[in-house]
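Practice problem: predict the structure.
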Amino acid sequence: MPIVRVQASAFGADLVHNEGFCTNTTETFSRRQTHRFFSATFAAFLSKPLGQSLLAGFDVTRKDMEDRQSTLNTIIGMGLIFLLVYLWMQYSAPPQQPQPASAEQPAATDTLTTPGVQTLDNQVKTTAQTVPDTSALVGRYGIFAPAATGQSQRVVLENDLARITFDSKGGRIEEVFLKKYYKSRPDSTGRLVKTPVRLLANPNNRFEYLIPAAGAPNRISSAELYFEPTQEGRTVIFRAPTTNGGYFEQRYTLSDNNYELDYRVRVHQPDQTLAPGHEALFLKWVNHLDKLEPNQDYERTMSTVYFKPEDNSPDYCNCRSDDIETLGERPVRWVSHANQFFNTSLIARNFTFADFTGETIMRTNADPALKTLRTSARIPLQDGEARMTVFAGPNEFELLRAYGVSLEDIIPFGSSIFGAINRWVIHPLFDLLARFIGNAGIIILVLTLIVKLLLYPLTYRIVYNQAKMSALKPKIEDLRKKYGDDQQTLSVETMKLYSEFKVNPLGGCLPVLLQMPIWFALYRFFPAAIEFRQASFLWAADLSSYDVALRLPFSIWGLGDHLSAFTLIWVATTLWYTWYSMRQMDSAAMGNPEQMRVMKYMQYGMPVMFMFFFNTFASGLTLYLCFSNLLNIGQTFFTKAFLINHEKIKAQLEANKNRPRKAGGWRDRIDAMMREQQRLREEQAKREQQQQRKKTK
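Answer:
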């Protein structure tokens, strides 16, 4: 096969660049099971000698099959690359969802009262009920028969950040009202309307304990019991009385300046209250998530049940399909029901959850709920008590990290090397910049500039390698004139020329490959960081969702019914840079003209193809890609104009030619491969001659 050197397009953050075309994929198909796919592939590639990786493309075939075979291989190879990228982007990208053109101010909401504790006049939610026969109550509820009847009351705890409403029937949280956050949803006219974020507010939600009550034939549900509320400062105590003077207690204490509740469940005199041989409660939690973001399809694919096994890293249920995860007797430290930017979590303190089962149930856009999450677990009691922490609030990295139980891993920054870069490099850098810069769009610009400066040594190596290749153009043109259309011989002689002048024809590939972890980490960072949620820049109303430059009167498959301005700018700058790069490239090393035409189509087709992906991505990402393209173009021109001495490069190449070559290295491996292929070709020719003689006899 002739040597194929693809001059790269400026793919956003330089996924393809200058003298090498290097692309890869990450985190496709199932997030939990394939997070490690790309990093493993990436590490495997780097673990091989560079020459061994490159030689796979330099296989020499017979001349009469060369043109067709090389072109076919090129098309197949590029097609596979596009297919892998397509699968990854289709899996990672949100389906198309109409986005309103502009945002409005928050709609009229509940009046926020002075922080403190309230009982809303002990508002009765349930009318008087027909009281069953006492014996029937005892037969069904056992020792908890006194709590089987009563009235439902609302009780409120409040601080500066949240207002939490409780229902005395079941002693559960009915709603968490977040004072500083708003959900953004389109109205019938397509405009964004902001209303307060309310967690756990769906009336179909359930949070209950199945209690093995003494005297009851079956476990009874705490959701059916009427608790007696008592308030003490920012603490509310719910007690369900028993026939023997005992009780089942749920105690909630709201912290002063956090989204945290100290939550304690207690069974008074458990040896008398619970059935013999039972020392545990069984939690059943059903949560119908609310739609909080403009793009509900994207939000749905980033919402799921997370959990932390005591002996392992946090895990989660599948985000894109119905899924059930059962851990059996493995202890679990915490469980979290998470939206894209908010979560409600239960953290065990004096015990660990057992018999854990997490489940996700997908919903359609027509359903009022975003997704249904379910959790069940056994809660062992320690001296009749189980202590937990309830967190119901935003996915703020440092806030979650402060718990010291890896709760911050519910933020979908990615795993392996990509998640590490986001958590310990990109996010701290963003926080630092946010202390001095108030606009998220300007922070992205500065962040892009810092990343490009840090990676500039790699960019310089790529441009420098391009300059060396350009210096050899006259000699390669001489080879083309000498061998004409004999592409096989031209390729062999070209490689000999590279070896003679000690130039690596794919020297730009490794620097590009080393930058990939940062590019893919940023791809995960922008739609996951709550700092970009509802942050505006220029025409983009929300940098965590896509921007809308033009609303289409119809929907296009892959694009939706809108066009993203940042995406269009990225495509335009990428196409221009591709055109500029193609002018600089060495056409002789491309092999046959047909192959070069295929490569040119691939180069120009890639940004157009990615326009269909980025059009529905977070505008923070496409803004970064625009800035990255512009800075990359500027760096390239600056390097070529002021830092690259072309005459000095020519002199260095001549010195390399006269310098004795060291034994070993990629050049010797290429020469050995060429000799082996030459031998195989000669043997094949002999066999064909022998077969031809047999036919003529």
